[in-house]
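Q: I'm building a small set of examples for a reading group on sequence design. Run inverse folding on the following structure and report the sequence directly after it, with nothing in between.
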């Protein structure tokens, strides 16, 4: 499945994309339960197929299977008592698939070519840092360019989302704990990142994690290795790699991170960026107001955002 969070009339909901249509999973399942003559259908639907992504992922494989039933029902029914179950994709706003991740864990120096261009050595253990939920914006949002710095940079990232509580998980079992995969742009203010030995300051500015366009579940994308990753700025290729080149694989990262902390459904893990970042070019090529940044990853799709100057953090000019 391709899961999305979509907004209509100011309300955000979990949906599934089928061709160019969006199925409202929670409402579709509610109407399905009503059609079976069950009482308390809204509460049953909220319990088993919640309307928010984190809640939905907490339901694990059971919620996924019930969602598939809801999709089939919705595509056949389409509308019930004036309630639309299916929308044209163009009629909704597509938001980040996980708008409020509990944790956003990022892995640095995880592609050999990026390690080389940054003049570092291959690390013996994953380099881990964090972004926070305030950074998340969707595939139809602009990247806010704050006046706090002129060194705005891009980082194409293949990301995975946890689907089941994970603690001390082995690599052999790791993919059972992954709900699916998406794309994140780890937008970074380079001079702020380098003010201290910790990178957090340059990584957590508002709107610095465009995510999307959707979450491709593991039943559709079964192998996270061997996927081409390409980032362009205004059509010019800047980054190009394959997830087979990761120093630490998805399986390794699930094992490593779950031995440090409990991973929860809805946690987003960014696996690292390849070579070609703007700061490493000669001369450096940072993002400018109006630039279009596009990241395409095999079997997932493309995430495209426009850079937009803001008067202050969170206020668009």
């Amino acid at each position: 499945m391709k899961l999305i969070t979509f907004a209509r009339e100011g309300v955000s909901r979990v949906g599934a994309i089928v061709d160019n249509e969006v199925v409202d999973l929670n409402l579709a399942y509610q109407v399905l339960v009503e059609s079976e003559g069950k009482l308390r259908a809204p509460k049953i639907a909220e319990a088993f197929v919640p309307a928010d992504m984190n809640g939905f992922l907490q339901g694990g494989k059971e919620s996924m299977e019930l969602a598939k039933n809801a999709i089939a029902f919705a595509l056949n029914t389409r509308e019930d008592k004036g309630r639309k179950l299916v929308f044209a994709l163009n009629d909704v706003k597509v938001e980040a698939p996980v708008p409020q991740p509990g944790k956003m864990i990022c892995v640095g120096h995880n592609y050999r070519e990026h390690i080389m261009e940054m003049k570092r050595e291959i690390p013996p253990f994953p380099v881990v840092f964090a972004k926070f939920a305030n950074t998340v914006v969707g595939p139809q949002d602009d990247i806010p360019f704050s006046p706090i710095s002129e060194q705005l940079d891009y980082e194409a990232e293949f990301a995975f989302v946890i689907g089941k509580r994970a603690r001390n998980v082995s690599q052999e079992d790791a993919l059972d704990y992954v709900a699916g995969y998406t794309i994140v742009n780890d937008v970074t203010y380079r001079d702020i990142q380098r003010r201290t030995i910790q990178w957090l300051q340059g990584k957590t500015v508002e709107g610095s994690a465009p995510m999307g366009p959707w979450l491709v579940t593991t039943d559709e994308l079964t192998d996270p290795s061997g996927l081409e990753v390409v980032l362009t700025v205004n059509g010019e290729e800047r980054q190009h790699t394959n997830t087979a080149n990761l120093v630490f694989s998805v399986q390794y990262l699930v094992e490593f991170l779950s031995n440090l902390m409990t991973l929860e459904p809805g946690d987003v893990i960014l696996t690292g960026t390849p070579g070609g970042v703007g700061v490493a070019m000669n001369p450096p090529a940072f993002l400018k107001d109006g630039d279009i940044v596009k990241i395409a990853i095999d079997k997932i799709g493309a995430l495209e955002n426009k850079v937009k100057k803001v008067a202050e953090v969170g206020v668009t000019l």
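The two ends are 37 Å apart (CA to CA).
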